[in-house]
Amino acid sequence: MLVNEIINAKDLPVMEFDGIIVGGGGAGMRASLQLAESGLNTAVISKVFPTRSHTVSAQGGITCAIQSDDPDDDWRWHMFDTVKGSDYIGDQEAIEYMCSEGPKAVFELEHMGLPFSRTEEGRIYQRPFGGQSKDYGKGGQATRTCAAADRTGHSLLHTLYQANLKAGTNFLNEWFAVDLVLNADKAVVGVIAFKIETGEIYYIKSKATVLATGGAGRIYASTTNALINSGDGIGMALRAGMPVQDIEMWQFHPTGIHGAGTLVTEGCRGEGGYLLNKDGERFMERYAPNAKDLASRDVVARSMALEILEGRGCGPNADHIFLRLDHLGPDVVHKRLPGITELSKTFAGVDPAVQPIPVVPTCHYMMGGIPTNINGQVISVENGEDKIIDGLYAAGEVACVSVHGGNRLGGNSLLDLVVFGRAAGLYIEDAMKQGVQLKDASSDDIDKALERLNKLNASSEGEQVSVLKERMQQNMQNNFGVFRRGDLMEKGIDELSKTREEVESLYLKDKSATFNTARIEALEMQNLFEVAEATAITANERKESRGAHARDDYTERDDENWLKHSIYFAETKEVSKRDVNYRPKTVQAFQPMVRSY
Amino acid sequence: MSAAAIPVEQIKTITMSIYRYDPTVDKKPYMQDIVVEIPTDKDIMVLDALHLAKEQEPSLSYRRSCREGVCGSDGMNINGKNGLACVTPLSEVLKRGKITLRPMPGLPVIRDLIVDMKQFFDQLEKVKPYLITKSDSPEIERMQSPEDREDLDGLYECILCGCCSTSCPSFWWNPDKFLGPAALLQSWRFIADSRDEATEERLDDLEDAFSLYRCHGIMNCVSVCPKGLNPTEAISNIRNKLLTREKS
After folding, report:
1. Is the peptide bond preceding residue A222 cis, with omega within 30 degrees of 0?
2. Which residue of chain A comes nearest to B141, CA vs CA?
3. pLDDT > 70 fraction of chain A, expressed in percent and rounded
4. Residue B9: pLDDT band by 50, 70, 90 thresholds?
5. Mind listing the pLDDT tens digit for each residue in A248-278?
6. Contact A508, A456 (CB under 8 A)
7. What is the DSSP string of A391-422?
8. What is the DSSP string of A101-166?
9. A197–B55 CB contact, under 8 Å
10. Are A256 and A249 in contact (CB under 8 A)?
11. What mean pLDDT is predicted for residues B97-107?
C-alpha cells in the first residue's frame, strides 16, 4: 500500500509495538532508551535521521544543580529561579520534579558518554546562564549550566542515539507520522505513518504512543528553529480533539544572528559577553540593574526590541544590537565558544574574537504545548476537570508539563527533555508490567486518521504550500511578536481564519510516492497552521502581560484573573483557564512576587 | 525567502544545473537547468538557492533540517566537491552564473539529491559507536581531566553528514568492507576517550585487511569535511595504536 493511493483502513498493513515514540530528538530518544532497556519492543518514528533533530542545535548547556561549580548549590534554588522565570504560571510540582531529579538524569548522560567540558578537578564544567541565582534570589548570580563547549545539544543528541543503538531500539528513520488513531473510547492506539523513501504506509499499533515531535518555530518568519520544526505533534493532538496549554507563550531569544536567524548561545553572555546599542552603551544596566545581560530571556529580548524601536539600534538601518565578546580574548572565545565562532563567521561574516556579532530577538521556543502530568500522560479538560487520555504521552518541547510557564530559562529545555522523556519511559514501563488493555481501533476509526492524507492525494487544484506558508509566517511575525496589541492580533486572527480553508484544501501537484518532500511539506504546513491559529487566538484572549506575552494594551500582570494556564481546543476555537499547580511535594510553594532582575 | 519578496532592481539570475532522478518516472537520471532569481545585495547559501529552485519545481527533492551546518542533512556534491549546502555561500561556488549540484557520489540514489545512506550507517554501527564501560558507574559523573577531555576535540563534533566517506575512493571501491573515514573517526573518538574500557576489543575488530587498512591516505575526507575535522589523522592514530600494542 503506497502513500499516493486513496487508502482504506481495510487494505492497510499493520505493524505492532509495545511502545512507539514519534520524534527522534532528545525527549524521544530518552524515552525510547528507557523502554528499550526494559525489554519492551520499542520503535522510534522519526521524519529525519535522529541526529538531524533540532536538539542538535542547542548550544549553551543543560541547567542542573550538580554541585560541580558550587558544592553548596541546591536544586531548590534552581526551582525558585524556574518558578520566577515562568512568571509564576509554571506548575510547581513539575518544576520540583525536574530540578530534584535533574542531577540523576545528567549523571546518566555522562555515564552514557556525553563529552562534557571539564573543570580542573575533572568534574562537569558549568557556566552562568540567565535568570540563575543562589539562595532564592538573594545570593547573586549562580553558575549552574552544564556544558560541552557550546555544542551541548549536539553532544547530548549523539550520545542518546549511541545509547539507543547499544540498547537495540528499533528506528523507523525517515518515516512520517500523519495522524493519531483513536479507538471507540477515545484512547490513542497508534498512528498512521509512512516510510518516506518508498511511500509504504502502515497503521502502527501500540499501547503507548509518545509524542516527542519538538517545537514549531517555523510559524514565524524569523526563527532560530530548524526547517523541520513544524509542530507535527501539536497538529495531530489538536485534530484528535485534545487541547493545547499556554500556546500563546513563545520565547524570543535575545541573540539570533541578524538576517540569518541562527542562534548564538546565551552562554556568550554567561562567559562575560554583553549587549551594546548604537551609542556603545551597555543598555541592560538600565533595564535590569542586578542581573544586567543575564536577566531572563523575555526581559532581555524586550529591552533590545525597545532600544531598536526607540532608534538606538546598530547598523545602517538601526535594526539590530551588538553582542560584544572580543574583550574575553581569543582563548575563551575559541575554547568555550567554538561553535558560535563558526556560525558568526558563516552567517554574519564576523570573528567574535575581534568584532561584535549583530543580533536581534528571534523566535526560539514554544513554552506551551500538549498538557501532561509529570508522568508524561496527556491531559484533556472536560467540564473544568482534568482527564487523562489513555495511551497518549508527550515529552519535550511539544509537551507543556508545565515547567516553563510564561518564560523558559536558558538551559532548562535540555533538562526538561531528558527528565520528562525519562519519566514517560519509566511510567510506561511500569504500566506495561501491570498490563494495559485498550480496545482495538475499528476500520472507521482508522479511516478517520487517513482523511487528511486522502484529501491531499485527491487534490486537483488549490494554493501552493510556499505561498500559504509565507503569508502565515509574515502574519505571525507582524502581529504576534515580542510586543502584542489587541487590534493587530484581531487583524491577524481574521487573516488566519480566511486562510484556513486554503490550508485544508491545498494543492499537492507532485503525487509521487518515492521520497516526495513536497507531500511532507504540505502535511507540515497543515500542522504549522494549527499551531499558528491556536497561538493567535489564545494570545488575544490572555488580556495581561506575563512572561513572554507582552501587550501594549494590557501592560501589567493580572494575577487576579490570569494566574492561570490557558487551554485551547481547535474544534471550538475557545479558550478556557486551568489552575496552575502550587502543590510541590517536599517544599513550600513559591508565591507570586514582583518579578525584577 | 521567496522570489516574490525581492525588489526587481536587486535581482540577478543564476542557472542551477541539478541532478534529477525519480525512479518511478525516469528511466535514467538527467541534469536539469533551473534558472533562479537571487538577490544581489546580499550573499545567500546554496541551500537558500535550492529553496528558490524548489518553488519552481516542487518535485525537486533534497534533505535539509537545521540550515546552520550542525545536523548534517544536506551533504551534496557542489561543483564536483562534497559539502553542506546550508553553509556554502553561493558566491564561493558560482562560476559564470552557474552551479552544478549532484548527489554525494558512491551511494545509491533514492531520488534527485537524496542518497541511500544505509551502507554509511551500517559501517558506523560496526565500530560500536558508544561508550563501553565495565566498571560500575559512580553516584555522580566519572572524573575526566581537562587534558583527557581535550583528546576528544576534533572527534566528537562529527555530524554524520557523509561528505567524507562518499568522497573517499577506497570507500567507493569497498563500501561493505572498508569502514570509511566517518566510522573510523568515531572509532578513534571512543578509543581516545579516557572513560572507555574496550580499547582492546575495538582494536581487535579493526585488525583485518579491509576495515581500516584500505585507507591509502588520499585525504579527500580532510579536504571536504565541513566541520574541519581530520579523519586521516584519526586513522593513523588507530594504526599506531595497533602497531604498538602488546599482544596479550
Report:
1. no
2. A107
3. 100
4. low
5. 999 999 999 999 999 999 999 999 999 999 9
6. yes
7. EEEE-GGGEE-SSSTTSPPTTHHHHHHHHHHH
8. HHHHHHHHHHHHT----B-TTSSB-EE--TT-BSTTTTS-B---EE-STT-HHHHHHHHHHHHHHH
9. no
10. no
11. 97
Question: Given 3-state DSSP classes, what are the helix, strand and coil percentages for chain A, each rounded to the nearest 5?
Answer: 40, 20, 40
| A8 and B CB contact within 8 Å | no
Cβ partners under 8 Å of residue B122, min gap 6: none
Task: Give yes or no for B245 touching A (CB within 8 A).
Answer: no
Average pLDDT over residues A293-312: 96
Average pLDDT over residues A418-429: 98
Distance CA A341, CA A334 (A): 7
- What is the complex's ipTM, to 2 decimals? 0.96
Question: pLDDT tens for residues A199-257?
Answer: 999 999 999 999 999 999 999 999 999 999 999 999 999 999 999 999 999 999 999 99
Chain A, residues 220-279, CB within 8 A of chain B, namely: 226-228, 259-260, 262-263
Q: Find, in chain B, the residue whose alpha carbon is nearest to that of A25.
A: B71
Predicted local distance difference test score (pLDDT) of residue A322? 98
By the 8 A CB rule, do A55 and A244 touch? no
Q: Which three cell numbers stand for residue B89?
A: 555561500
| Rounded Cα distance, A438 and A391, in Å | 8
User: Any idea what the Cα angle at residue A134 is, between residues A129 and A137, rounded to 5°?
Assistant: 95
Among A259, A346, A510, beta carbon nearest to B58? A510
Residue with cell 524556574: A82
Contacts of B114 in chain A (CB under 8 A): 515
Q: In percent, how much of chain A has pLDDT > 90?
A: 100
The pTM (predicted TM-score) of the whole model is 0.97
**A331 touching B, CB under 8 A?**
no
Q: Express each pLDDT in B140-187 by its tens digit.
A: 999 999 999 999 999 999 999 999 999 999 999 999 999 999 999 999
Instruction: Give the N- to C-terminal CA distance of chain A in Å, as an integer.
Output: 58
Average pLDDT, chain A: 97
Candidate from B65, B125, B133 with C-beta closest to A226: B65
Beta-strand (E) ranges in chain B?
11-20, 30-39, 75-78, 81-84, 98-102, 109-111, 114-115
Q: In whole angstroms, give the CA distance from residue A520 to residue A511.
A: 11
Q: How far is B130 from chain A (nearest CA, A)?
A: 5
Q: Of A87, A170, A101, A146, give the one whose Cα is nearest residue A404.
A: A87
pLDDT of res. B1: 46
Other CB atoms within 10 A of residue A386 CB: 12
**Cα(A303)–Cα(A326) distance, rounded to whole angstroms?**
22
pLDDT of residue A56: 98
Q: Please count the other Cβ atoms lying within 10 Å of the Cβ belonging to residue A579.
A: 12
Beta carbon pairs, A and B, within 8 Å: 157
As annotated, the active-site residues of A are 297
Cβ–Cβ below 8 Å for B59 and A509: yes
Name the residue in chain B with its Cα closest to that of A197. B110
Residue among A151, A197, A228 minimizing CB distance to B157: A151
C-beta neighbour count of A593 within 10 angstroms: 10
Sequence-distant (6+) residues with CB within 8 A of B153 are none
